[in-house]
TrEMBL record:
A Gene Ontology molecular function term of the record: aspartic-type endopeptidase activity
Taxonomic lineage: Bacteria, Pseudomonadati, Pseudomonadota, Betaproteobacteria, Burkholderiales
Record bears the keyword Protease: yes
Organism from which the protein derives: Inhella proteolytica
GO BP annotations listed: proteolysis
Name of this protein: Retroviral-like aspartic protease family protein
Length: 209
């Protein structure tokens, strides 16, 4: 009897499946047309509709938050839904010309292009990207960073999230360099959480913790 009652309570209070959502269009930088569970909704920046909060909107992309997880939407892409982070553990990358591994990802929900750099101690971000993302880097520890172009000023910060594909890692240390960078460097503060395996032009990152 008691077990049956407990089971009924768990079923009654269990979390509903996360809503599927896709981007149907944007209304400038202040609102987006989102398709939530098959219904088109006009959602203003910062507004939450049916469990979906609009965080950022651009011409062809938007960032939403669903059940505490940030999702990046692109115009015309298939609907996505929040997935359990623990189920997503593998990143597979293909080398580009020159043998480098470059991939699109996000930092704190903001789109960014990464270059995998096993020689970098931490994720490194140029000042332009940091400002675009609204990072409060001035609150971080100020240091001198040694780069290929010499010594430059930098700030050590902790990123809420770094996401590649469906794999998201929280609490990642990063350096914001006081110089422009064409890409962000995906350094060992992120890579050290993965087992890395390279086979020819394929790099596989398997989540360790």
């Amino acid at each position: 009897m008691r077990a049956a009652l407990l089971l009924s309570l768990l079923l009654a209070t269990g979390a509903a499946a996360a809503p599927s959502v896709s981007l149907n269009g944007s209304l400038g930088k202040s609102a987006a047309l989102l398709v939530i569970q098959g219904q088109v909704k006009t959602v203003r920046l910062g507004q939450t509709v049916e469990g979906v909060k609009l965080i950022e909107v651009g011409d062809d992309q938007a960032v939403v938050e669903v059940e505490g997880q940030r999702l990046q939407l692109r115009l015309g892409s298939a609907p996505v839904a929040q997935r359990a982070a623990s189920a997503q553990k593998r990143i597979v990358l293909s080398a580009v010309e020159g043998g480098h591994f470059v991939t699109q990802g996000s930092i704190n929900g903001h789109s960014v292009r990464f270059l995998v750099d096993t020689g970098a101690t931490a994720v490194a971000i140029g000042i332009d990207d940091a400002k675009r993302m609204g990072l409060r880097y001035q609150n971080g520890q100020r240091i001198q960073a040694h780069t290929a172009n010499g010594v430059t000023q930098a700030y050590v910060v902790t990123l809420d999230s770094v996401r590649i594909g469906e794999v998201e890692v929280g609490g990642v240390e990063a350096m914001v360099l006081m110089t422009s960078m064409p890409v962000a460097l995906l350094g060992n503060s992120f890579l050290s959480r993965f087992q890395m395996k390279r086979e020819n032009d394929i790099l596989t990152l398997e989540r360790r913790f």
